[in-house]
Design a protein that fits this description.
Number of domains of chain A: 1
CATH superfamily of the largest domain in chain B: P-loop containing nucleotide triphosphate hydrolases
Number of strands of chain A: 2
Strand content of chain A: under 5%
Oligomer: heterodimer
Number of helices of chain B: 17
Distance between the termini of chain A: 60 Å
CATH topology of the largest domain in chain B: Rossmann fold
Distance between the termini of chain B: 51 Å
CATH class of the largest domain in chain B: Alpha Beta
Number of strands of chain B: 22
Strand order of the largest sheet of chain B: 6-9-10-3-11-12
Radius of gyration of chain B: 25 Å
Largest sheet of chain B: 6 strands, mixed
Chain lengths: 381, 511
């Protein structure tokens, strides 16, 4: 073994603002987006109307749309920080909704047992996948892809490829928690259904879990460096497994909320949920390779992605454009962090180089003066 | 179909033999804080096996990397190839025909033998691969080497020796001039070693120059024509093999002045705290020793002698097949690092970047992670992390403003201090240091030695694996020497000398 020099990565100076607060980049882009939409609206209406995009009723509307994907995104954040990913959440949500709907309308289990059965089955299925992922070296991408296809099949088998219609047994989940309050701008009724509240509670719990508990520390450690984590006394396998168990619970809850909104158990219910939730999480700055990210970032991602479609509607743009916009936002938000790091790195390097050059120039000036004072004088004149 | 192969190793006329291929003079290489090579000269002739000997860290690998163009030597170096001065870079080294076969194979495991040989230099006619031609040449060379390998075998399915043979075959097909073999026989069985040495003998006769690096002196004596001995980056001697004795060679490899070593403060040794009884597993076989409070047990041996593997068994990160581990006289069964940490053990691994640190995370997070095992509370506060982190930053003089710096931004020595802090924070009693000062500058080395002595003063015990001979000798109270996973000797007091350690680690008791 040769005596090799350790890598000497020196970081001179203070890290940039964007590097110190990791959510700042995406927050800045989000705020910029909102400002642009508001300005556009003001421009289009000639400044006569309050921009509907930021009216309370619309903001609550956005919340209703992102509530369920948001719940799943919290779980996805934990899974991705632990170094995994879960592609199966969409189909799993469909499966849970069909099981719950069948439990209520066909098997006559009663509402609460049927809901519990749905959530329980999500937990069991996620646990199985988590078990395989944590005990083998197979990529979570592949296992959960397989899970996605399998769940779709099970769901279709259970409902004979038909939809399962209920009689509004879950409507209590749609009740308005702030009955009677009106929007001061549009004078429409303001609505906060329970699942929006549940989303916030879950996000709060997720944030506390990741940021302030022993469990959270370990999830980050496992995602950053599983080998070092194992040698630091962390049960890496069970930590990974636990992330998927939590995911199961959250997908179960999310699926029941979706079912309550639509009142029908159907295979298309969870379609695209995996794409949306992963997009929200990565917009929020969580790294696909694990170990980096937080719930606050995910929240920004959730609101950001949710407000794109809404804003497009406000501007009366066709829905096809929404996909383009959503895709671009994902790309911009994720690469912006890297770009801002590069810029600040470049600036600090340039500062350093300039400093070195100045030092060298100073030295040269001194030595010039010592060796050839005459020449120096002639230069001056 | 093989007979007419024009690419099979040519039979050169003897006339060209013994003409010089390579000459290096005045080769130095310094890394920040470390002088790896100093004024080395070296030359290689056609049809010759020139061996490089020296302990771990003598500078052999650095010299190879210079030859393969991976490192540039410091200014003043002169390298000439067949009489012409050259400045080597990886591309030029390749086109001149210098091929290095490393200890760890760099191969395409999912491709066949033939595809591996011709990777990047496929024979192509009008854009189509000439598979028949490539197979013909591969078969021709493999036959010349008397190897039964099939050109279609998957590289990943071959044994280590098979992969070496394929790499040698590649050297022959592309008419390399110099083949460098770095510890080619490590992890080979004795039959495979014989086979490989025969092949080297064969290709030598086809006019190549071979640089052979090994710490197995028997091999050096068997196939070498000349030997150059390095020690601490300096060239000690160069001998013709004929008439050379093993004793002379070993004398050359050791022979530092012990008074220049680090002078460690001695600490009074207390009662036994750790014991291994016939520990077997993960490549280690039947290892027994005891360790007392205030004592450093050095573990010496050549690279690949199973030292780190043994440490992993002791720490529970590799399975213990048989034997017992006792802590404070009680048999403990720790099947995971988690249990080992509860039993007050600490493991400072050799590869701190990959197994010791969470590089993108802050010092505070790195320092507090291992002690989570001993934490009862479910809720942890970042403020406490920062307080603990800052305490260690101060205590161990980690060069950074505070513990919110990310580990990746620190230098090697400071990173090692973060790893130490991580374990100090668990209040461990039994410390395993695997290569504690690998790749660390001299100043930080001394600081780490001081920290180790401080641990002893607190009544803790240390097992230290090290390939740095002065480190082993100056720091250890006792030295356990390993070879091939077995304990060869336990040296104490005056027995601890470079010569004793080296003789035992190469396992040659005939001297």
């Amino acid at each position: 073994m040769s005596s090799e020099a350790a890598p000497q990565s020196k970081q001179t100076g203070r890290p940039s603002l964007f590097r110190r607060y990791e959510n700042l980049t995406v927050l800045a882009i989000f705020v910029g987006f909102v400002v642009i939409i508001v300005i556009l609206q003001l421009f289009l209406t000639g400044g006569t109307k309050f921009p509907t995009f930021i009216s309370p009723v619309n903001l609550l509307n956005i919340l209703q749309q992102v509530g369920v994907p948001g719940i799943v995104a919290v779980g996805m954040t934990i899974v991705m920080i632990s170094g995994g990913i879960d592609l199966s959440v969409g189909m799993l949500a469909s499966l849970v909704s069909i099981i719950t709907a069948l439990g209520i309308s066909k098997w006559q289990l009663g509402v609460v047992p049927a809901v519990l059965l749905g959530i329980f089955s999500a937990v069991v299925l996620e646990t199985i996948m988590g078990f395989i992922i944590s005990r083998t070296k197979v990529e979570p991408f592949i296992i959960t892809l397989g899970g996605m296809i399998t769940f779709q099949g099970i769901a279709l088998l259970l409902c004979n490829s038909r939809e399962v219609i209920m009689n509004g047994e879950l409507d209590f989940l749609k009740t308005n928690l702030i009955q009677g309050i009106k929007d001061p701008v549009s004078h429409l009724n303001l609505i906060i259904p329970p699942y929006v509240l549940i989303f916030f509670i879950i996000a709060l719990f997720g944030g506390l879990l990741l940021g302030y508990t022993r469990y959270g520390r370990r999830i980050y450690a496992v995602g950053t460096n599983p080998q070092a984590a194992y040698l630091a006394g962390i049960d890496v396998k069970n930590m990974k497994l636990s992330a998927y168990v939590i995911m199961g619970v959250l997908v179960g809850i999310g699926a029941v909320m979706l079912l309550a909104r639509i009142n029908t158990g159907i295979i298309t219910l969870g379609q695209g949920l995996e794409i949306d939730s992963i997009a929200m999480v990565v917009i929020g700055g969580t790294a696909l390779k694990g170990g980096k990210g937080n719930i606050l970032g995910t929240l920004i991602g959730v609101f950001f992605l949710g407000s794109i479609g809404n804003a497009m509607n406000m501007l009366r743009l066709p829905s096809e454009v929404q996909f383009v916009a959503k895709g671009l936002v994902v790309i911009i938000a994720v690469s912006a962090g890297d770009v801002s790091n590069r810029i600040s790195g470049f600036l600090s390097r340039r500062k350093e180089l300039r400093w070195h050059a100045e030092q060298r120039a100073k030295k040269e000036r001194v030595s010039n003066r010592l060796t050839s004072p005459n020449q120096n004088e002639t230069n001056r004149t | 179909m093989i007979a007419k192969s024009e690419r099979t190793p040519p039979k050169r006329e003897r006339v060209h033999f013994m003409s010089e291929i390579l000459r290096l003079s005045n080769i130095s290489k310094t890394f920040p804080g470390v002088v790896a090579l100093q004024n080395i000269s070296f030359d290689l002739n056609e049809g010759e096996v020139h061996c490089l000997c020296g302990e771990n860290g003598a500078g052999k690998s650095t010299l190879i990397k210079i030859l393969s163009g991976a490192y540039h030597p410091d200014e003043g170096a002169e390298i000439s190839f067949e009489g012409k001065p050259v400045v080597l870079n990886p591309h030029l080294a390749m086109s001149l025909g210098i091929q290095t076969i490393y200890q760890e194979h760099v191969v395409f495991e999912t491709l066949s033998v033939m595809e591996n040989i011709f990777a990047g230099a496929e024979i192509v006619k009008r854009g189509f691969l000439q598979k028949a031609e490539m197979r013909r040449q591969t078969l021709g060379v493999l036959k010349y080497l008397k190897s039964g390998l099939s050109p279609d075998a998957k590289m990943g399915d071959l044994s280590s020796s098979g992969q070496k043979i394929v790499e040698i075959a590649k050297g022959l097909i592309f008419k390399r001039r110099v083949i460098i073999l770095d510890e080619p026989t490590a992890s080979l069985s004795s039959v495979e070693i014989e086979n490989l040495l025969d092949i080297i003998e064969t290709i030598k006769n086809s006019g190549l120059g071979i640089i052979y690096i090994s710490h197995h002196l028997e091999e050096v004596f068997k196939i070498g024509d000349r030997v150059t001995v390095l020690r601490d980056g300096r060239k000690v001697s160069q001998h013709e093999m004929a008439g050379l004795t093993k004793t002379t060679l070993i004398r050359d490899m050791v022979g530092r002045d012990p008074s220049t070593f680090y002078q460690r403060e001695k600490v009074s040794i207390g009662g036994a705290v750790f014991e291994a009884r016939a520990v077997t597993g993960n490549g280690a076989r039947d290892i027994s020793f005891t360790l007392s409070r205030g004592e450093i047990l050095g573990i010496a041996g050549m690279a690949g002698s199973g030292r780190s593997e043994l440490m992993n068994v002791l720490f529970g990160s590799a399975p213990l097949d048989s034997g017992e581990i006792l802590i404070n006289g009680k048999v403990v069964k720790h099947s995971t690092p988690e249990k080992a940490i509860r039993n007050k053990m600490c493991f400072i691994t050799e590869d701190r970047q990959n197994t010791g640190l969470f590089l993108p995370q802050t010092i505070a997070r790195n320092v507090t992670i291992a002690n989570l095992v001993n934490t009862r509370e479910f809720v942890v506060h970042s403020r406490d992390d920062a307080r603990i982190g800052d305490k260690f930053v101060k205590q161990l003089a980690i060069k950074t403003p505070n513990s919110q710096t990310r580990a990746v931004e620190l230098s090697g020595g400071n990173q090692q201090k973060v790893v130490l802090a991580k374990w100090f924070n668990t209040n461990g009693e039994i410390f395993i240091f695997d290569e504690p000062t690998l790749g660390i500058d001299v100043g930080s080395k001394q600081e780490i030695y001081k920290v180790m002595v401080d641990l002893l003063k607190q009544g803790k015990a240390i097992i230290m694996v090290s390939s740095d001979m002065p480190e082993v000798i100056s720091m250890s109270d006792r030295v356990l020497v390993m070879k091939n996973g077995e304990k060869m000797a336990e040296l104490r007091g005056d027995e601890i000398s470079e010569e004793n350690i080296l003789i035992n680690s190469i396992g040659d008791k005939t001297i």
